[in-house]
Amino acid sequence: MKKLVYVLLGTLVVACTNPKEKLLGDIDKLMNQDQSFETKKGIAELQEQFVAKYPNDSNAQYFMENYINFYAKIDSNDKAIALAQQYLSTYDSSVERNNMRIIIGQALSKKGEHEQVITHFEALMKDMNVPVADLRLVGASHLALLSDTTNKERDEHQFKYAGIVEQTMGLEAAADQYKRLYTDFPTSKYAPFGMTKHADVEERNGNLDEAKKILNTLIETYPDSKFAADARIMIEQDLLGMSAEEQLDQILKNQSSN
Length: 258
Known about the structure:
With about 260 residues, this protein is an all-alpha fold. It has helices at about 1-15, 20-30, 35-55, 60-75, 75-90, 95-110, 115-125, 130-145, 155-170, 170-185, 190-205, 210-220, 225-235, 245-255.
């Protein structure tokens, strides 16, 4: 009987002095408390300690996701970026990878790293549908770079900003931004495109005379542009105000009458 008691006591002592189990117990204890800021901070710090000591433990990935999200929410941006990058290099097949990439982009935005924000999210857009809120962060970065009059790529930032406004708010809302492509940057390669989009808005609103005026100006100002060729067809074949199906019927009718 005494031997059994000693064995049980020995097991209990080992369990109590096992640093890994003790750390897990401390984390579990905090997770069962009211989730105040200080409690969440304590959990994140203990989980970070655990991952540092036991990176191959089955809890490590979940703990890491939790404390990265915590540091991102409290705007500890440099730390969130570094830890998210560490997560990406460690868990290359995790379903949370894109979320970690978004966290990096958001932290870069908070730091005002506008060029990096744009580069980061443009790469992310190739792999996923970026949430509207994050697209607006990209738009804000384009606007910030637009305000720098020494920036030699302001027309490109205007072009991309207009595209983001259209994507997040619709073509109507983007009309003025497309118009700026040819009013503010008349020598830009994007200017003819801006005129085409502006004419499209006027056409959709039923302002066919204004749309025709813009397209004529496009033909006169940028005669060698591919957009000018499309504008000529629209005007010469009287296609303004028609649906795509009606335009096709009109083109076929015009061809048969020639």
